[in-house]
Amino acid sequence: MNSPALSSGGAPAAAGALDAAALRADFPLLADRASDEPLIYLDSAATAQRPRAVIDAEVDYIVRANAAVHRGAHTLAADATELFEDARATVAGFVGADADQLVWTSGATAGINLVAYAIGNATAGRGAPASARFALRPGDEIVVTESEHHANLIPWQELAARTGAVLRHIGVHDDGTLDLDAAAEIIGARTRVMAFPHVSNVLGIVNPVDRLVALAREVGALTLMDACQSAPHLALDLPASGVDLAVFSGHKMLGPNAIGGLYGRADVLEALPPFLTGGSMITTVTLDEADYLPAPQRFEAGTQPVSQAVGLAAAVRYLENVGMPAVHAHEARLERRMRDGLREVPGIRLLGDADGTERVALAAFDVEGVHAHDAGQFLDARGIAVRVGHHCAAPLHRRFGMTASVRASATLYTTDADIDAFLDAVAGIRPFFGEG
Ligand code: PMP
Question: Residue 9 has what pLDDT?
Answer without folding.
Answer: 29
